[in-house]
UniProtKB/TrEMBL annotation:
Keyword field contains Transmembrane: yes
Designated name of the protein: ATP binding cassette subfamily C member 6
Residues spanning the membrane: 119-138, 195-217, 223-243, 308-329, 729-750, 827-847, 918-938
Subcellular location: Membrane
């Protein structure tokens, strides 16, 4: 049931329907209103972008390079009509606010004159009711339009940020990490929205102050100038505070960016952190940034002490100064109830603009920082589409003429003087050593690099398979179709050609199986084949393939080459540029390009290069020495053998639904108690005491004035009264000063408490997340977790304590007001009880809907972050395919869903406010009515006190209920933070039982009847596994996809806990010791080379345990020493996010160097040299054999030839051990291993080569 309000209206009965549904059952998406077309991102974003483009063009026309375009003017041009409408509503509501004190003044004057008939009194009571009712309706209309305008502005800016991220040049992209760009979208755009909500206060607050001063002049004459002078004195202090707040905001954003960036990288590289037991080191890094953040929050909190003092004490100080001067100007001046309570009502009106003005000035200062950051990003350099010429004569598909390129602005050229012409329909191989510029060559063709000189030519549509396959969090079919229509016959041909059909048979939902974020739940080989299938299905003219065959075994690689890339493959008529390290394919290519140090060192056909170029022939010989005995033969029936390292397919079942779960039902009090516990009970009781004190003193001040004016009415001889007025004025002043002290104490203790809560909840969240088992990260999108550390933590840091404080203040204010009015008119209690009942009924009705909408909105924000992060990672692929517009549409879709919840939240808020304020208006009416009914029995001072408090109660009651609702709805953020505490955790990092120093010293691994399963309701992933290695033994682990190879290593590192049996390493059952004692003493070289931003040194040694000399030694062993020495900062070279400024091969070598630093007796080798050239591969393999000769090595085999020289081979099938013996004995036995070797086409003389005789 989708309700769509017409013309932007949400009639009360329609919105009541929403609230009514929400009260009866938890709201769902279908129950909510849809957006009006004019409010949707599909309309808002293009309109704003058009104005932004005009602003840029205007500056280009003026040629003012030193000025950057401003967002303010395009925003005004886009939204000026609705902003003017909102301003008109605001000014009308403000004028009505000043009518209430004037009606109250008339009523006090009626009481003072003591007439025989009170008909005029009844008229004034009714007039007062209609004035406050009109003000309510206009104010709520203003609020509704204001909120919707603010969110439209945020939507427009978010849309522009997203579009900019897709066009950002790589040189600019290196200045912005994913975390920083996400922060621009979530924090800075949010700041702009929050300012828009309050922007009218910039003129409305001064307008209200001027109006109040005019009316006060009528009551108190020139003495009001003393109060104005005091106000003027406060303004420069506010300006200083605002400047300080601006600086603090800048610092806070800087630390927040750093923290989110680090967390984002940690979560994407969580596997490395867990396997290397690095969580505490990185936890300390996050906590140190967080401490800096909390220090800034502390300074900001202490500044709010001044703001609170302004809000509470400035009206009192203004009234004190005014009254003091009023008495001294003329001795005949006396205080009457009319003057005092009319003035007090005006001072109460004055309180909010006085408080709002410094707040909005501060918000302007903060938003200026955010605007500057947004403008810097939006003005960053874009990719220049003119770098690549697509309109040229000639029949070549790609051409370079004297072209040079670089990645970074002012950086050194990476590709130099390229001149080449690639004919249409040809197959071109690009080869060369690690870091020679192969991937950069493809990036230059795509236009991803900055062109320094020369010409680049490219014709036709492009399909691109990147070296590190980019996979979307979507179904496998959608990943392949990539937005294209499904043509079943061609689609199935692509699946068969990419060797994906056997995988589909094992997936729970076939090609409808959902792949996790960044493809976390599929193997490297499967990612590459899906990426290749996406390219093939696009049916483009030009195919750029960046080493897609590196992550698959030799036989699958041959199948992919023959069926797709090669001369008889599916793409035989297309132009294909293939980066590869596998030289067996080179004879089948039309042209070979050899890259060396960014230049084309050699070029020609295979025969030409072998016959004429000595160093190319050497490259072939290096490969031949490695692979002479591994030749592939056609396999009967085109049967494919998969030896790709893959998670057990049981893991697919873990990913049944990775969408965020939304809680339902009432907010448990335990959630708020958790916050108060983190807040610290001591600070809480002190806060309550301080607020009780300041509210009691506020009532005391007004009662003192009431008594004072009552005496004035009764005194006939004013000589005595004048003598006591100074004493009374001093008491009034003293009460105000003590109230000010209570305000300062309250602000101080609430700051201390809120900081304690921020620190404790962040620490708990971080600790809980880092203790989650690895499988949790493979099923939950990272965006969900990042959302907790950004949006939800922002509520804890900046909002929740404010709501609690305001609610407490309003509660005490409401109680005080009711007591004052009831003491003046006891009959009022008859009205308070039913009105109070209605208040709580309305609140209960509203809160059920509002809470659920907040929960749904919180969950709908995660897809926005996830899609944005996913786009940033895959931007090169998106641009290569030319799918920018489709991704912009998809971004609009997820933003639209988030906006639907916001829109409905605004509707439900307005529903609440209209009804609450109507009840408040009734209270005002009855207070006024009872005053009239009391007639001559009530003094004019009591009339003034009663009505002035009644006028105040509208705001207090409204705030009270709203803040109670805000507490409950925003407690959703605390609920979302705390929910990680309830999730299953992995074992403790350190236990009381510690292994001896130097363990393991022999490296003997023993599996005893070991069983393991990924979840209790799933089948066993390992079934009764028993085997033992010898000390320093080299064991190869082989098996088909889903055999349990990865599960075995997961169990060794206790990533997956066993359900039965045990694993014993050197006499110690690993389940009895802490995870870090285990993982810290094992070593692994993983398949995916994951690096973190920071220095090269911190990537090699994040714990800081090793000297520079040791680091240089391992770099030399990994053949990286020359490369690192050529860098300007050497070991302190800054690695960009994800290691993007290193080639994939260099990243793998850095990971090898990292492993070499860990001196342990057990190494798990997830064969990780697939992305390096053959020469480097040989050097790395010899380094591993030499440096780890005294270690037990478990090798997960991707290619069978790599385990042929193992001392023993473990053959797995569906979680069971089929065979375990030497390669020689297994081949003689003619079992499963022998069959695999035969299927892979490895010649039998490998037996002799493979037997280790040492």
């Amino acid at each position: 049931m989708c309700c769509s309000p017409q013309g932007g209206r949400s009639p009360p009965f329609v919105s009541f329907r929403l609230i009514s549904i929400g009260y009866k059952k938890p709201l769902e998406r279908d129950d909510l209103f849809e957006l009006n077309e004019s409010d949707s991102p599909y309309t808002v974003c293009p309109n704003f972008e058009k104005q932004w483009r005009k602003e840029i063009q205007k500056l280009l026309f003026k040629k003012t390079s030193f000025h950057k375009p401003s967002l303010i003017w395009p925003l005004w041009q886009t939204f000026k009509c609705v902003l003017i409408k909102v301003s008109f509503l605001k000014v009308t509501a403000d004028i009505l606010a000043f009518m209430s004190p004037q009606i109250m003044k008339a009523m006090i004057m009626v009481s003072e004159n003591r007439p025989t008939s009170y008909v005029s009194g009844y008229g004034y009571a009714i007039a007062l009711f209609f004035v406050v009712l009109s003000q309510t309706l206009l104010h709520q209309l203003y609020q509704r339009n204001n909120m919707l305008t603010a969110v439209k502005i945020k939507t427009a800016v978010v849309g522009l940020i997203y579009k900019k991220a897709l066009t950002l040049a790589n040189s600019s992209r290196r200045n912005y990490t994913t975390g920083e760009i996400v922060n621009l979208m979530s924090a800075d755009a949010q700041q702009l929205m929050e300012l828009t909500v309050n922007i009218n206060l910039l003129w409305s607050a001064p307008f209200q102050i001027i109006m109040a001063v005019i009316f006060l002049w009528k009551e108190l004459g020139p003495s009001v100038l003393a109060g104005v002078a005091l106000l003027l004195l406060v303004i420069p202090i506010n300006a200083l505070i605002a400047a300080k707040v601006k600086r603090l905001k800048k610092s806070l954003m800087k630390y927040s960016d750093q923290r989110v960036k680090l967390l984002s990288e940690m979560l994407h590289g969580i596997k490395i952190l867990k396997l290397y037991a690095w969580e505490p080191a990185y936890q300390r890094k996050v906590m140190s940034i967080r401490e800096c953040e909390v220090d800034v929050l502390k300074s900001s909190g202490y500044l709010t002490t001044y703001s609170m003092l302004t809000l509470t004490c400035i009206p009192f100080m203004v009234s004190l100064a005014t009254l003091g001067v009023f008495f001294h100007l003329d001795e005949e001046n006396v205080l009457t109830a009319t003057k005092v309570f009319t003035s007090i009502s005006l001072f109460n009106i004055l309180r909010l603009p006085l408080f709002d003005l410094p707040s909005v000035i501060s918000a302007v200062a903060q938003t200026k920082v955010s605007l500057s950051r947004l403008e810097d990003f939006l003005c960053a350099e874009d990719i220049n589409p003119k770098d690549v010429n697509t309109n040229y004569s000639g029949n070549h598909a790609v051409g370079f003429i004297g072209a040079s390129f670089r990645w970074e602005k002012n950086g050194i050229p990476v590709l130099k003087n390229l001149s080449i012409s690639i004919p249409e329909g040809s197959l071109v191989a690009v080869v060369g050593q690690v870091g020679s510029g192969k991937s950069s060559f493809l990036s230059a063709v795509l236009g991803e690099m900055e062109k320094l000189e020369g010409t680049v030519q490219r014709r036709g549509s492009v399909a691109y398979a990147s070296q590190q396959a980019w996979i979307q969090n979507d179904t496998l079919q959608e990943n392949i179709l990539f937005g294209a229509d499904l043509h079943r016959q061609y689609y199935e041909l692509v699946l068969e050609s990419c060797a994906l059909l056997p995988d589909l048979e094992q997936l729970p939902n076939g090609d409808q199986t959902e792949i996790g974020e960044r493809g976390v739940n599929i193997s490297g080989g499967q990612k590459q084949r899906v990426s290749l299938a996406r390219a093939v299905y696009s049916n483009a003219d030009l195919y750029l393939l960046d080493d897609p065959l590196s992550a698959v075994d030799v036989h699958v690689g041959k199948h992919l080459f023959e069926k797709i890339i090669g001369p008889s493959g599916l793409l035989k008529s297309k132009t294909r540029i293939l980066v590869t390290h596998n030289v067996t394919f080179l004879p089948h290519t039309d042209l070979i390009i050899v890259m060396e140090e960014g230049r084309i060192s050699q070029m020609g056909t295979y025969q030409e290069l072998v016959s004429k170029r000595a160093n190319f022939a050497e490259l072939i010989q290096v490969f031949s020495a490695e692979h002479t005995t591994e030749e592939t033969t056609p396999v009967e029936g085109e049967k494919i053998l998969f030896l790709v390292c893959s998670s057990s397919f049981d893991q697919w079942k873990l990913l049944t639904n990775n969408k965020e779960k939304v809680a339902t039902g009432g907010m448990k009090m335990t959630v708020v108690l958790k916050y108060l516990q983190a807040f610290n009970w001591r600070w809480m009781w002190l806060t309550i005491a301080a607020y009780l004190g300041q509210n009691a003193l506020a009532i005391g001040q007004n009662l003192w004035l009431s008594t004072w004016t009552a005496e004035t009415a009764e005194v006939s001889d004013f000589t005595e009264w004048k003598q006591s007025q100074n004493y009374k004025l001093h008491i009034y002043g003293l009460l105000g000063v003590i109230q000010g002290l209570f305000v300062c104490c309250g602000a101080y203790v609430i700051t201390r408490g809120s900081l304690s809560a921020s620190r404790a909840l962040h620490h708990q969240l971080l600790d809980n997340v880092l203790h989650l088992p690895l499988q949790r990260f493979e099923t939950d999108p990272v965006g969900q977790i990042i959302n907790r550390f950004t949006k939800d933590l922002f509520i804890v840091d900046s909002r929740f304590h404010y709501y609690l404080r305001t609610w407490l203040n309003c509660t005490l204010d409401v109680i005080g007001t009711i007591l004052v009015i009831t003491s003046a008119s006891p009959l009022f209690i008859v009205v308070v009880i039913p009105l109070g009942y209605f208040y709580f009924t309305i609140q209960r009705y509203y809160i059920a809907s509002s809470r659920q909408i907040r929960r749904l909105a919180g969950a709908s924000h995660s897809p926005v972050i996830s899609h944005f992060s996913e786009t940033l990672v895959g931007r090169s692929t998106i641009r290569a395919f030319g799918h920018q517009e489709r991704f912009i549409r998809k971004n609009n879709d997820v933003v639209y869903e988030n906006l639907v919840y916001f829109y409905n939240n605004v509707i439900s808020n307005r529903w609440l406010c209209v009804r609450l304020e109507f009840l408040g208006n009734l209270m005002v009416f009855f207070a006024a009515l009872f005053v009239v009914l009391a007639g001559n029995t009530m003094s004019s001072s009591t009339v003034g006190l009663s009505i002035s408090y009644a006028l105040n109660i509208i705001q207090s009651l409204n705030f009270w209920v709203r803040k109670a609702c805000e507490i409950e709805t925003n407690a959703v953020s605390i609920e979302r933070i705390c929910e990680y505490a309830k999730m299953d955790k992995e074992g403790p990092w350190i236990t009381s039982k510690r292994p001896p120093v130097g363990w393991p010293d022999r490296g003997i691994i023993k599996f005893v009847n070991y069983k393991a399963q990924y979840r209790k309701d799933l089948g066993l992933a390992l079934k009764d596994v028993s085997f033992q290695t010898q000390s320093k033994e080299k064991v190869g682990i082989v098996g088909r996809t889903g055999a349990g190879k990865s599960t075995l290593t997961n169990c060794l590192f206790r990533v997956l806990e066993g359900s039965e049996g045990k694993i014993v390493i050197d006499g110690i059952d690993i389940s009895t010791i802490g995870l870090h004692d285990l993982r810290g003493n094992l070593n692994i070289i993983p398949q995916d080379p994951i690096l973190f931003s920071g220095t090269l040194q911190s990537n090699l040694d994040p714990l800081g345990k090793h000297s520079d000399l040791e680091l240089w030694e391992v770099l030399e062993l990994c053949h990286l020493k020359d490369f690192v020495q050529s860098l300007p900062k050497k070991l302190l070279h800054e690695i960009s996010e994800g290691g993007e400024n290193l080639s994939v091969g260099q990243r793998q070598l850095v990971c090898l160097a990292r492993a070499l630093l860990r001196k342990t007796k057990i190494l798990v080798l997830d064969e990780a040299t697939a992305s390096v050239d053959m020469e480097t591969d040989n050097l790395v393999q010899s380094t591993i054999k030499r440096e780890f000769h005294n270690c037990t090595i478990l090798t997960i085999a991707h290619r069978l030839h790599t385990v042929m020289d193992s001392e023993r081979v473990l053959v797995l099938d569906t979680g069971r051990i089929l065979e375990y013996d030497t390669p020689h004995n297994l081949l003689q036995r003619k079992g499963a291993f022998s069959e695999m070797v035969a299927e892979a086409g490895i010649r039998r003389d490998k037996e002799n080569l493979g037997i280790n005789t040492s």
